[in-house]
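Please decode residue identities from the backbone states below.
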């Protein structure tokens, strides 16, 4: 028995493409290019890539990316990973997915050109869409951990595929690289016609969320869990119709929250915030979107009605125009 409402599209708005690399693909690429991997079989590799117990913080969680980006030795590998992300979304019976990626983060291990990575990801995503029919859009990430100067170069790389990117995001070490450093970057992103979503209120508090919506122009928040620390902020999110991309299992694994039961998702939904349920990094967390709906959400205290509301919110805050949203809803009803 599933909590997913069959009459509504199943949507994932917050999934990192570079945190969703198949374990088998890591092994395949490692063997093909004679890379030193920590294990030579799936089960041996798993604890190096997946979180096996809650991590002490966000940066320790992010360290799991090492073996995922470490096998991106060329543009063909980047294209393959992007295509497989869409294929895996189809296997999960996802109707619409927004895949986000940091070209600098993907390019760094093997000295690739970030612009070449962006082109490869765009092509791989198109390949996956053609093969599966899944609707997918791309979100470009600026990895704040590299600092403002590198992020400007990363932005330039993303702009080479401006028409194939839907939105701009800021991710990475929120605690040490505040959003104030990236105001000019996001002004350029908005001028390019992109939507804006920002990782905020995960490793830092409500002040980070205020900055994201007031100075970076965020109309959606990645995680945003700590927004509940400021009742005025919650009211502002409702007033401005700002959506929140929640990833329950990830938030527990990064110790953003101490447990599922302590997660503020239900509190946000009850208040009227347009909060949603997403995966973040499925390969690292060892989950899929159905797990988040059927296992994580009930553990977080959500009723079936709450879960349906979150599913409907995802359609409402998706980076799609009204016609695309309507088409997605109608297609689901007719399927």
């Amino acid at each position: 028995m599933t909590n997913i409402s069959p009459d509504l599209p199943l949507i994932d708005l917050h999934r990192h493409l570079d945190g969703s690399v198949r374990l088998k693909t890591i092994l395949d690429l490692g063997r093909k290019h004679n890379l030193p991997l920590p294990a030579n079989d799936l089960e041996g590799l798993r604890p190096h890539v997946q979180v096996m117990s809650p991590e002490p913080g966000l940066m320790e969680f992010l360290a799991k990316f090492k073996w995922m980006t470490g096998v991106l030795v060329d543009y063909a590998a980047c294209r393959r990973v992007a295509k497989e992300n869409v294929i895996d979304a189809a296997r999960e019976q996802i109707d619409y997915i927004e895949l986000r990626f940091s070209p600098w983060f993907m390019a760094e291990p093997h000295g690739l050109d970030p612009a070449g990575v962006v082109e490869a990801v765009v092509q791989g995503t198109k390949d996956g869409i053609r093969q599966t029919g899944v609707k997918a859009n791309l979100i470009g990430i600026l990895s704040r951990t590299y600092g403002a100067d590198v992020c400007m170069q990363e932005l330039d790389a993303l702009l080479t595929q401006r028409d194939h990117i839907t939105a701009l995001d800021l991710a990475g070490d929120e605690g040490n690289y505040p959003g104030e450093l990236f105001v000019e970057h996001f002004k350029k992103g908005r001028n390019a016609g992109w939507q804006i979503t920002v990782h905020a209120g995960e490793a830092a508090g409500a002040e980070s969320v205020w900055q994201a919506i007031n100075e970076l122009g965020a109309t959606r928040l990645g995680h945003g869990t700590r927004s509940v620390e400021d009742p005025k902020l919650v009211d502002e999110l409702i007033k401005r119709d700002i959506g929140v991309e929640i990833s329950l299992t990830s938030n527990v694994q990064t110790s953003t929250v101490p447990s599922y039961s302590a997660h503020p998702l239900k509190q946000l939904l009850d208040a009227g915030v347009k909060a949603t349920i997403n995966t973040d990094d499925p390969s690292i967390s060892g989950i899929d979107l159905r797990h988040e709906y059927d296992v994580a959400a009930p553990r977080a205290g959500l009723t079936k009605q709450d879960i349906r509301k979150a599913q409907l919110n995802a359609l409402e805050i998706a980076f799609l125009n009204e016609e695309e949203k309507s088409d997605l809803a109608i297609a689901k009803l007719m399927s």
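Observation: The radius of gyration is 18 Å.
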